[in-house]
Write a structure and sequence with these properties.
With 311 residues, the chain is an alpha/beta fold. It has two domains: 28-68; 85-310, NAD(P)-binding Rossmann-like Domain (Rossmann fold, 3-Layer(aba) Sandwich). It has helices at 24-68, 94-105, 121-128, 147-151, 169-190, 213-229, 253-262, 271-283, 296-310, and strands at residues 85-89, 111-116, 132-136, 155-158, 196-201, 234-240, 243-245, 268-270, 293-295. Helix 8 packs across helix 9. It is elongated, with a radius of gyration of 31 Å. 31% of the residues are buried.
């Protein structure tokens, strides 16, 4: 090495022509990696297309079977039980709004007591028509202030509820178990009717052994209400819908899309149909049993029976 001249790094070549060219083995490795990535993507696309095809076939068959199903509830052959006066709790929510809409459209329902914290346009229009009496109520563990309103009710439609997201078990249980339990206890003390019906919206897919807190609490609510009313003049009916589609006035595009997806396979019900099913069950009070439970399919059937009877 000459003093004063920079040393040439051993890994560099002063003459690029002297650098060794990439050999055929390197090119083969690159080609092989490219082919492997291409084959993997192609395989994944095929698998996804197969799964999508299987899902579409299953969905189509299920929708077709449901469309061909002509099951119907037998027509009511006796005079309907009274539904002159009803009370609705939770009418500002998705299900409650549909129940109120169905009740407003029923000429046999003459008086609707709406017990609520928040007034909605539908409540206001019902008040203007003279059919709805709205009572603002804040303490759902004490119903002394609304005794007169509920004492004359033939049926109570209970749609109070919240999402379990971000809610602890104690709060969720207080709303879904303690609120209706306190109401039923006090309603039985003041009711002036010989027989009354309490309609409670529960949830589908509930179990005591569920890992989901809300599912266990809904079971606890059903058992609590059943035991509380057993042997009394009160029949409790439970509703276990899947997806609930809001009323036309309240639904946003995303909710309409979800309903449109679930409805053809029998996994969705409109909020108005829940109200119609409740009205039909109330009209059949003489033939229902304490603790009757309606899933989505049953709700649709009783809603259909209601429309056939009233149209």
């Amino acid at each position: 090495m000459l003093v004063g001249l920079p040393a040439t790094p051993p890994t560099q070549y002063a003459n690029k022509a002297a650098a060794p060219a990439a050999g055929p083995s390197r090119r083969l490795v690159d080609i092989g990696c490219y082919d492997l990535r291409t084959m993997t993507r192609s395989l994944l696309r095929r698998v996804l297309l197969i799964l999508l095809g299987l899902f579409a076939a299953f969905y189509g068959v299920l929708a077709l079977l449901l469309a061909l199903d002509d099951e119907a509830i037998e027509a009511l052959r006796v005079a309907p039980a009274p539904t002159d006066t009803i009370a609705i709790f939770g009418a500002s929510g998705t299900a409650g709004d549909g129940i109120l809409k169905a009740a407003l459209a029923d000429p046999r329902v003459r008086r609707i007591h709406v017990i609520t914290r928040r007034v909605t346009p539908r409540m206001e229009s019902g008040e203007a028509a003279g059919k709805v009496q709205v009572t603002r109520h804040m303490d759902y563990l004490d119903y002394a202030a609304i005794r007169e309103q509920v004492a004359e009710a033939d049926a109570v439609f209970w749609a109070i509820g919240i999402s379990s997201r971000g809610v602890d078990e104690e709060t969720y249980g207080r709303i879904h178990v303690d609120f209706p339990r306190q109401f039923v206890t006090q309603w039985l003390q003041v009711s002036r009717k010989p027989a009354v019906t309490f309609h409670y919206i529960s949830s589908s897919d509930i179990s005591e052994d569920s890992r989901m807190m809300w599912a266990r609490e809904k079971v606890r609510a059903e058992k609590t209400l059943f035991a509380l009313a057993e042997g009394s003049s009160l029949n409790v009916v439970f509703y276990r819908p899947d997806y609930i589609g809001p009323t036309r006035e309240e639904a946003h595009p995303g909710q309409r899309l979800l309903y449109g997806f679930f409805a053809p396979v029998g996994a969705a019900v409109k909020a108005v149909q829940i109200g119609q099913a409740m009205l039909e069950m109330t009209a059949r009070a003489d033939s229902i049993s304490h603790g009757d439970t309606l899933d989505t399919r049953d709700i649709l059937l009783y809603s259909d029976a209601y429309e056939r009877r009233t149209n």
